[in-house]
């Protein structure tokens, strides 16, 4: 009977694709299985040991030829035409004798309702909101502190004939250049850290890495929009701060430097 070997079995070195092996049943009998390909893991089963994936009808024939009764099926994979499994799920759930039926949307809802995942998602959303706010506050403080520390320099420039508008434009250009560099570097660093950290911290209910593996995709449209809004707010704050701080009291600043 043809079968697929999972990665755990192939990595053990016990079998290779193309080998023919003998499988012995727990109740007696044996079956010849030919490894025709590989599969990352057998869906729906724990990945705690190596497994083979084979056609149940072919295996039942092999068990019968070997003088043993085929084992009872523990699960069925059902394909639905058109991709809408709603009617099939309703029919199975209406008859308890057919067992428990699940589909992909059901599993997705279960995962989305998990408190741990909801908490992690809430923390990420909170970071998305707070990070731009902290950036705006930091640049505002930096602009104010930078202007206050160079008040005497600005006073000398005003004494040499530099107008207030020119002084404000100088301060505005300086701070926005820093904001642009910080926005670009922060966006790139955040995307890189997300790609590195999210696959590590995303685990299943048992604490194992999720399977199939996490799809690593950066939503560049959302990231660009967030960075753009943050840069626009910083631009507005810096513009207002530059206009206010550019109004240097020339007489006071020059008198303060008389004793130096």
Structure described in brief:
With 260 residues, the chain is α+β, with helices and mostly antiparallel strands. The protein has helices at 7-11, 56-65, 86-94, 104-112, 115-149, 151-159, 164-201, 220-245, 250-256; strands spanning 2-6, 20-24, 30-39, 52-54.
Shape: elongated
Helicity range of the residues? Answer: 55-70%
Structural class: alpha+beta
**What is the total tally of β strands?**
4
Biggest sheet: strands, sense, closure? Answer: 4 strands, mixed
| H and E string | EHEEEHHHHHHHH
User: In terms of per-residue confidence, which ranges show pLDDT below 50 for 5 or more consecutive residues?
Assistant: none
Mean pLDDT reading: 77
Beta-strand percent range: 5-15%
Radius of gyration: 33 Å
Number of helices: 9
Strand order of the largest sheet: 2-3-1-4
Domains, number: 2
Distance between the termini: 96 Å
